[in-house]
Amino acid sequence: MTTHEQGGSATRTVSGRRLAALVRDRCADEQLAHDVEVVRQVLPFKVSRHVIDQLVDWKSAPDDPLYRLLFPHRDMLDPKHFRAIERALGDPVALRSAVASVRGTLNPHPGEQLTRNIPHEDGDEVSGVQHKYAQTALVFPRHGQTCHAYCAYCFRWAQFVGHPELRIADEGPRQVIAYLRRHPEVSDVLLTGGDPLVMRSELLEPYIDALLGPGLEHISTLRIGTKALSFHPARLVNDPDAARLLRLLESVTAAGRQLAVMLHVSHPRELEPAVTRQAVAALRAVGAQLWAQAPVVRHVNDDPTVWADAWHAQLMLGIHPYYLFVERDTGAQRYFGLPLQRAYEIYRDAVVRMSGLGRTARGPVMSTTEGKVTVDGVAELPGGRAFALRYLQARVPDVVGRPFYAVWDPAAQWWSELVPFSRHDRGFFPPGARGAGGADRAAAR
Ligand code: SF4
């Protein structure tokens, strides 16, 4: 067990070679422990004491959904990549090269985050900021670029594997604040990572104090993206720094701004521990609005009952269901990914079980380079069957809210696999998307 301090509150975590020892100890399965040792060379894994003691059901491992969410599994790698890493174990030079080559195949920066989302001013990159939608800027505080534990499906996994060229992090609040002062169209700032709540309060204070200060009156909402309530809820309850953090968060609402804590809840069991419920109550007591989101992924939550239970638990705790995302085209997508058709069925079958107040989650949503695209359903059109799609958010605001269509493909898992249904629909896809199908093919017949 390692005591982890990334400029943050002390969390005891297990990572690296101790993971295999933990699995060997808890599951008494040598093959499983070996697989853990192979796969963790490529993708980042870390679990907290809370995860080990309160979330994972060790009697059901490795099939337990929380185990699947957090621990390496051999199916996360293509079998030929698994064998390549396995062969290289024990030879540091060969292993480094094999790991680099396998990581390169896993699309480490989906959505062109390193090229299209980072703003430039006077020819210089504003590091640690992503500004994709006019109203919302994402800020990546340098000390918040890790998490209390790692979700194995994390689309930001590249940040955690120690390659500076794959890392998005700011140079401190000054450059970020200067940028935001020059952008009055920004109403929402999302502090994200990683998880900003790994930071000690004294490191978060300069950001929050500055955001509440002069010149930034246009920032009406401060959002904080976190999975601390699932991985280290004591951070908001009995951590030595908890009281200072809560005072800091309260300063946002006391200043008349909205504080939105964007929780990441993959499975309803994450909301069961008493300490987690205390953390929710503590956040509500300082005036925070709570919103919950997660991707729908195989092995963890690919079941409408799980989503309906999660949304119900969230409503009972005063948390708004927000997004059901589609697993992104990165990392262990081969293990977690689901066809869009299945993701849509899970969303629909879950949402019909909810009362109106529980139907606030949008989904299934793909967070693409162009914007957030939701699958509204399957339509039978004159040219054939189609996915009905809609942008909830977009770089080009004009496309938001307008229905468009892609050729129905029962195997497609991601946006890049979809084909515009007609010439009209091409305008909603990125330049270079595959040619129109459906209606145009029918017209040509
Ligand atoms: S909490 Fe978010 S950033 Fe952290 S590992 Fe999970 S998905 Fe990634």
From TrEMBL:
<protein>
    <submittedName>
        <fullName>KamA family protein</fullName>
    </submittedName>
</protein>
<keyword id="KW-0949">S-adenosyl-L-methionine</keyword>
<keyword id="KW-0004">4Fe-4S</keyword>
<keyword id="KW-0479">Metal-binding</keyword>
<dbReference type="InterPro" id="IPR003739">
    <property type="entry name" value="Lys_aminomutase/Glu_NH3_mut"/>
</dbReference>
<dbReference type="InterPro" id="IPR007197">
    <property type="entry name" value="rSAM"/>
</dbReference>
<keyword id="KW-0663">Pyridoxal phosphate</keyword>
<dbReference type="GO" id="GO:0051539">
    <property type="term" value="F:4 iron, 4 sulfur cluster binding"/>
</dbReference>
<dbReference type="InterPro" id="IPR013785">
    <property type="entry name" value="Aldolase_TIM"/>
</dbReference>
<dbReference type="InterPro" id="IPR058240">
    <property type="entry name" value="rSAM_sf"/>
</dbReference>
<dbReference type="GO" id="GO:0003824">
    <property type="term" value="F:catalytic activity"/>
</dbReference>
<keyword id="KW-0408">Iron</keyword>
<dbReference type="GO" id="GO:0046872">
    <property type="term" value="F:metal ion binding"/>
</dbReference>
<keyword id="KW-0411">Iron-sulfur</keyword>
